[in-house]
């Protein structure tokens, strides 16, 4: 690993009737994985980015998607290149 890798977990709350549309839009975003969902409109999303700034940008993008009520950061970890060698 040449650079640090930022792993972030988000809880995304969406309008239940737009859940499928929001999931389709989320799948278009680079470095994003959908991990869990609730029919009540809650999604667990994981991001992998090279820079912390990209996490904030992605949260802002997600919050702007039609049907998204809120995207909240739940967890953030930085994996450093030094730590990967150990």
Describe the structure.
The chain is α+β, with helices and mostly antiparallel strands and 86 residues long. The protein has one domain (5-84): Lrp/AsnC effector binding domain/regulation of amino acid metabolism (RAM) domain (Alpha-Beta Plaits, 2-Layer Sandwich), CATH 3.30.70.920. 29% of the residues lie in helices and 43% in strands. It has a 4-stranded antiparallel beta sheet with strand order 2-3-1-4. The protein is elongated, with a radius of gyration of 14 Å.
Summarize the structure.
The protein is built from 3 helices and 4 strands, in the order βαββαβα. The chain is elongated.
Keyword list:
single chain, 86 residues, alpha+beta, Alpha-Beta Plaits, 4-stranded antiparallel β-sheet, 4 strands, 29% helix, elongated
Could you say which overall geometry the principal axes of the C-alpha atoms support?
Answer: elongated
N- to C-terminal distance? 12 Å
Decide which structural class fits the backbone.
alpha+beta
Highest-level CATH class: Alpha Beta
The largest β sheet comes out as:
4 strands, antiparallel
Instruction: Write down the CATH topology.
Output: Alpha-Beta Plaits
Strand order of the largest sheet: 2-3-1-4
Count of β-strands:
4
The amount of beta strand, in percent, is 35-45%
The second-level CATH architecture is: 2-Layer Sandwich
Secondary-structure element order, N to C: EHEEHEH
């Amino acid at each position: 690993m040449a650079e640090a890798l930022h792993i972030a977990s988000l809880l995304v709350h969406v309008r239940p009737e737009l859940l499928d549309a929001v999931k389709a839009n989320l799948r278009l975003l680079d470095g994003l994985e959908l991990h869990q969902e609730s029919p009540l409109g809650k999604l667990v999303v994981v991001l992998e980015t090279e820079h912390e700034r990209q996490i904030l940008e992605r949260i802002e993008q997600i919050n702007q998607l039609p049907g998204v009520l809120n995207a909240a950061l739940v967890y953030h970890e930085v994996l450093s290149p030094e730590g990967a060698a150990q």
